Amino acid sequence: MSNFRDSRFSNLKEYVPGEQPQDKSYIKLNTNESPYPPSKSVIDVLNREEAEKLRLYCDPDCNLLREKLAEIYGVGKENIFVSNGSDDILNFAFMLYGRQNGAAFPDITYGFYNVFCKLYGIDYSEIPLSHDFSINPEDYMANGKFNVIANPNAPTGMALSEEDIERIIASNPNNVVVIDEAYIDFGGKSCYKLINKYNNLIVCRTFSKSRSMAGARLGYCFACRDLIGDLELIKNSTNPYNVNRLTQAAGVAALNENEYYKANCKKIAETREFTVSELEKLGFTVLPSIANFVFAKHNSVGGQELYLKLKENGFLVRHFTNPRICEFNRITIGSKREMESLINQLKVIVGGKV
Ligand SMILES: *Cc1c(COP(=O)(O)O)cnc(C)c1O
Fold first, then answer.
1. Distance from the CA of 349 to the center of ligand 1, in angstroms?
2. Which residues line ligand 1 (CB under 6 A)?
3. Whose CA is nearest to atom 1 of ligand 1?
4. Which of 38, 166, 268, 318 might form a disulfide with 30, Cβ 3.0–4.6 angstroms?
5. What is the average pLDDT across 185-198?
6. Upper half-sphere CA count for residue 31 (Cβ side, 13 Å)
7. What distance in angstroms lies between residue 86's CA and the mean position of ligand 1's atoms?
């Protein structure tokens, strides 16, 4: 790196996303993408006519998309903000609300949160998950900080109840609480309706996982009008056209076929239950997930070894080196067929070592 860089960034460690290999084809179970394609309406809308409109700027307010989201979720259009992936929303939220009183989130969670803290010079506490990898809600109550909680959490897949989430929000009236619902559509109960009751809540979501659009980069969030105003201020002060024309069109088309995505989420939840029971038969311990991935460790084969052996054999899963979770691998739920071949491969790898 250069010597021109501002000294604020000298120790910045970037976020490292899961591998996206372009060389050979893997059964890709490492970044929680959907195994199913976008709906037909999405594919139809990305046509020549839409491509020709690329010479024009897109709608900076994403009106059609926000109207459609408002209709589906039964909230006001003014309570919705859309962005270039939910990472963008998280970025803006840390920028806006992190410095004042410092941030708090679990020690095991989405790896981007602490990167934002380092980027903005935010003091932060990484609160240890309990021994069973659950979040203890008391740790976040009235802690006077900007709390960010993925619900369900990643990479554990485990969720807090709506009551616990509400207790955290209600006990921190002077700080914003972000609930990151990237995986809520696979079986969790959303808390987004609480935005009508609390002015300190942002609930963020993404089209990347449950709506098969990771490559389009589309995120959205629900919040009271004032918080949405804050997010718009940052967006308009950095990149007002941050959701491109093709993505806006694809997003509206996807929402027009919402039932297709609901059916896919249901299939993925069923495949998850199948996968869990097969993994358990092979001697794995699997955390109770309600997301589109499971977090599993084998009783005798190490996490790193398993990751490498799977990779050699054409299966990509996600392994983390953090000592607390290095015996685990996070396995995205693919199609039933993909999971059957994963299980067959694991039978070879773990062999008699159940
Ligand atoms: C995938 C993920 C995101 C980011 O989603 P994008 O919309 O693709 O930026 C945010 N939070 C969590 C917990 C995620 O796993």
1. 31
2. 85-87, 110, 150, 154, 180, 182, 206, 208, 214, 219
3. 182
4. 318
5. 97
6. 14
7. 6
Q: pLDDT class for 236, splitting at 50, 70, 90?
A: very high
Cα–Cα separations (whole angstroms), residue 51 to 58, 65, 96, 218, 247: 12, 18, 35, 18, 11
Report the atom number in ligand 1 closest to the C-alpha of 109.
13
HEC readout, the chain = CCCCCCHHHCCCCCCCCCCCCCCCCCEECCCCCCCCCCCHHHHHHCCHHHHHHHHCCCCCCCHHHHHHHHHHHCCCHHHEEEECCHHHHHHHHHHHHHHHHCEEEECCCCCHHHHHHHHHCCCEEEECCCCCCCCCHHHHCCCCCEEEEECCCCCCCCCCCHHHHHHHHHCCCCCCEEEECCCHHHCCCCCHHHHHCCCCEEEEEECCCCCCCHHHCCEEEEECHHHHHHHHHHHHHHCCCCCCHHHHHHHHHHHHCHHHHHHHHHHHHHHHHHHHHHHHHCCEEECCCCCCEEEEEECCCCHHHHHHHHHHCCEECECCCCCCCCCEEEEECCCHHHHHHHHHHHHHHHCCCC
Judge whether residue 140 has pLDDT over 80.
yes
Residue 221's pLDDT band (cuts 50, 70, 90): very high
User: pTM score > 0.90 for this model?
Assistant: yes
Pocket test for ligand 1, best of 92, 110, 156, 181 (most atoms within 8 A of CB): 110
What's the 28 CA to ligand 1 centre distance in angstroms? 17
Angstrom distance (rounded) from CA 299 to CA 301: 6
Dump pLDDT digits (tens) for 292-315: 999 999 999 999 999 999 999 999
Q: Does the pLDDT at position 66 exceed 90? A: yes
pLDDT at 281 over 90: yes
Using the mean position of ligand 1's atoms as its centre, give its distance from the Cα of residue 169 in Å: 21
Which residues lie below 8 Å from residue 67, measured CB to CB, with a gap of 6+?
77
Mean pLDDT of 129-148: 98
Q: What is the mean pLDDT of residues 56-69?
A: 98
Residue 354 has pLDDT above 60, yes or no: no
